Amino acid sequence: MKIGLYIHIPFCVSKCYYCDFLSFARPEMQEAYTSALINEIKNYAALLGKHYTVQSLFIGGGTPTVLPPVLLDKICMALIQHFQIAPDAEWTIEANPGTVTNDHVRIINTYPISRISLGLQSTHNSLLKSIGRCHTFEDWHRSYSLIKTNTSCDLNADIMFALPSQTYEAFQDTLKILTTYPLEHLSLYSLIIEEGTKFGRLYDVGELIGCDEHQDRQMYHHAKAYLKDKGYQQYEISNWAKTGKACRHNILYWKREPYIGLGLGAHSFFEDTRYHNEEQIEKYIQADGCLKVLQIDHEIITKAMAMQEFMFLGLRMTQGISIDAFSRQFGVDLFDIYENPLNKWIKHHVLVKNNDSLRLSDYGMDVCNEVFSSFL
């Protein structure tokens, strides 16, 4: 059986103002964390045995390339030694500009790493500073050049829009500059002001003004048209790729295929159960890879919950969902379960039905959260 792996590296140079991910700058914990993570890798691989083959690996964070190269090497070696990995598996690692060294490149070339996601957010240094990024666009260019010159990896760039003080013209400029680089993949995310972040605290006291919805949608619509013109295919609400370069690991999530999350706070979906790891790093390290201690908040996914996930995860993809696949998987007709919301959204051209497929229209992508909630 095929399975995906996510490996969480929680360390960063510093915390971005918008970030609510489980990440922090605690370099003194890196060696102990790596040791505990490797033990978790060993224990999970022993549990899965030879019945599961890894089809995709994603080393994310945080910033994996903040780790000293020797520690990253140990993690990659443990994955190779203990898991059964398909020869054609997609292997992605996240990196931030300025953290990639020649030694990191050597490690990337030592293992079958095929994709690198190089965070950027904007090509405008003033905007980068205003959102707490610890790099400049020039840093990104240098890291890009080092990777492209010395590896055969495909590259993704993460971009944010609807940032405080970001103009429509600045966003247009970022896309124009980025598409001069032969990037295989682009991910674009609208800023969400999350509780517990620096931006969240500033917003609560009236010291941060968010982007208005009109400009948010203006930027998104521009990106859709501009990237299509530049040869990128939108395959998900927030993701674009050149032909054949869509991220297989992301698609695994949206299609509800099984995956294991390794590392601090990492989430898993395995044997119809969702759960996640311990979120306090001291407790994670103390557990030393013991799966029974690490795994918490187990939730068995019922048939009703699985049908809901099929809808709101599958509809994120531009190809939409298969009506026949729903019937085969759940033994019931899709329209018998969701007759009212489906007929409503089709009538208002939010969903488009075409033979066996059901997908969001362009307008549907703008109101997708309302659509998704209607299936809950």
Layout: helices, strands, pairs:
Blueprint: E1 2-9, H1 30-48, E2 53-61, H2 69-82, E3 85-95, H3 102-110, E4 115-121, H4 125-130, H5 137-150, E5 154-161, H6 168-178, E6 185-190, H7 198-204, H8 213-229, E7 233-236, E8 239-241, H9 248-254, E9 259-262, E10 267-270, E11 273-277, H10 281-287, H11 291-294, E12 295-300, H12 303-314, E13 321-322, H13 323-330, H14 334-337, H15 339-347, E14 351-354, E15 357-360, H16 362-366, H17 368-373
Parallel strand pairs: 1-2, 1-9, 2-3, 3-4, 4-5, 5-6
Antiparallel strand pairs: 6-8, 7-8, 10-11, 11-12, 13-15, 14-15
Helix pairs in contact: 1-2, 1-10, 6-8
Architecture overview:
The protein has 376 residues and is α/β, with parallel strands linked by helices. The chain has two domains: 2-254, tm_1862 like domain (pyruvate-formate lyase- activating enzyme); 303-373, Winged helix-like DNA-binding domain superfamily/Winged helix DNA-binding domain (Arc Repressor Mutant, subunit A), CATH 1.10.10.10. 42% of the residues lie in helices and 23% in strands. It is built from 17 helices and 15 strands. It has helices at 30-48, 69-82, 102-110, 125-130, 137-150, 168-178, 198-204, 213-229, 248-254, 281-287, 291-294, 303-314, 323-330, 334-337, 339-347, 362-366, 368-373, and strands spanning 2-9, 53-61, 85-95, 115-121, 154-161, 185-190, 233-236, 239-241, 259-262, 267-270, 273-277, 295-300, 321-322, 351-354, 357-360. The protein has a nine-stranded mixed beta sheet with strand order 7-8-6-5-4-3-2-1-9, with helices on both faces. A three-stranded antiparallel beta sheet has the order 10-11-12. The relative contact order is 0.12. The model has no long low-confidence stretch (mean pLDDT 97).
